[in-house]
Amino acid sequence: MKISLGRVLLTLLIFLHVELFASTYEWSATANKSKAYVNEAIHLSYTCRFSDAAELYSIEFNPDGEYENYTIKLLTKSEKLINNKKVNSYEFVAFIKKSVDVNFAFDTVMKKTNEDSIKNTVLGRDNASYEEFTKIKIKQKNLHVEVVQTDIALVGSLAIELKKDTLHVKAYEPYHMEIIIKGEGNLDEIKPIEFKIDKVKVFAGKVIRDIKLTKDGYIGVWSQKFAFVGNEEFVIPALNINYVNLKLKKEDVLVVDAIKVEVEKGFKREELLDKIDEDFKINYEYFYYIFAFVLGFLISKIKLKKPKKQMLEDEEFKEKIKNIDSLGELSVVLALKDRKKYEKLILDIETKKATNINKIKKEIGLI
User: Fold this and answer.
1) Residues facing 87 on adjacent strands
2) Is the separation of the CB atoms in 129 and 114 below 8 Å?
3) Run means of pLDDT, 10 residues per run, the chain, 367 residues
4) Predicted local confidence at residue 237, as pLDDT
5) Which helix (H) or strand (E) holds 159?
6) In Å, how far are 68, 69, 104, 142, 184 from 30, measured between CA atoms?
7) pLDDT at residue number 339
């Protein structure tokens, strides 16, 4: 195979450039704190500065992941030219998981393209056996972080907010409440909250996290919704969430005061339920918005009437609907009658899209 003079000259020029102007590099590593609480965010920054554009170099540096004593999450990484000199930057957020001091000392692999690889690329040879890269493993600077001892898992700069219904509901009508925690810290680690109240059905929605990772940890909003259903007065107990307040540098408490809910007598159970049969199950698919109304009394199942009684059953249903003057009670009766058929109406009532009871009755066909 003939090799052109131009390719030979180009190869020589590249070799001369590599030899005379070989790239050098220098790494730096910093941590934004030398002391931290368990689960407190630690910002780790690593930078590699080359002496030139360093076209022959690439870097393997991926320390993010789960370790025995800490977690590392990648925040950002970049490669750019500054004054025609390549700069590679990596930022991570570390969270220490145990009350032990930690040394962050990671391996990095510097990959340099070999001369044989350049030669075969320039000369157009693709069948040669050669090592494409030379790899050099280096150890990053050791970053030591001392752990401040505490038994509290939640850490950050946080505030708590409560959204709730009026304190007066009818029997078996749900009392709605939402707990919201805002700020920055390890919001991703907050567990679901549970309430247990005698003679009250408590339904807890899924935890919603609207959070974003920053150098100071996760920032954003954590929230959870609840519905409480009972047929007599009850008290939602106070809630105390212990955490380490990073602004004050001490242990603190997020507090939700106890809530007393007054319950007015509404429909009796036997007025809302048909006879019970073991072969028909209520589906709680729309657990919060739809069926919180009926959780207090749907501890069993609905009987399917025989066809010959269907007309009488329909008349009784219409009569019940006509006499209802509460959206909450209307939602219960519709759910018991035919959940799938009236699903949209029930959801509209629960989400307050439908507020005119006469209009709803008209849509059902009873006015």
Assistant:
1) 49, 80
2) no
3) 53 48 86 96 98 92 96 96 96 96 96 65 51 85 95 95 92 94 95 95 94 96 95 96 95 96 73 42 40 46 46 73 77 72 80 80 72
4) 97
5) strand 155-164
6) 22, 19, 10, 9, 22
7) 67
- Strand-by-strand arrangement of the 85-96 sheet: 25-31, 41-50, 85-96, 70-82, 65-66
Residue with tokens 């022959």: 56
Instruction: Check if 5-148 and 155-264 are the same fold.
Output: yes
Residue 276 pLDDT:
37
Candidate CATH numbers 2.60.40, 3.20.20, 1.10.12, 3.30.160; the one for domain 155-264: 2.60.40
* Cα separations in angstroms, 257 against 35, 178, 223, 254, 360: 34, 13, 17, 10, 37
**Measured CA angle at 186 (ends 155, 218), to 5 deg:** 125
Q: Which among 174, 179, 210 has a CA at the least distance from the CA of 193?
A: 179
Domain boundaries, the chain: 5-148, 155-264, 269-364
Neighbour count for residue 208 (Cβ, 10 Å)? 13
DSSP string for 49-107: EESS--TTEEEE----EE-SSEEEEEEEEEEEEETTEEEEEEEEEEEE-SSS-EEE--E
Q: At what angle are helices 343-350 and 327-338 packed, to 10 degrees? A: 150
* Residue 287: predicted pLDDT: 41
Element (H, E) at 224: strand 217-229
Short-list 236, 233, 227, 240, CA closest to 197: 236
Is 5-148 assigned to CATH 1.10.10?
Answer: no
Rounded-to-integer distance, Cα 105 and Cα 124, Å: 42
Which residues 6+ apart lie within 8 Å of 174 measured at CB? Answer: 203, 227, 228, 229, 292, 293, 295, 328
Separation CA 85–CA 23 (nearest Å): 10
Q: How far is CA 15 from the centre of its chain?
A: 52
Tokens representing 104 are 């962050």
| DSSP of 262-323 | EEE--S-HHHH---B-TT-----TTTTTTGGGGTTT-SS-BPPPPGGGHHHHHHHHHHHHHH
Interior angle at CA 12, CA 52 and CA 21, nearest 5:
20
Sign of CA dihedral 306, 308, 309, 312: positive
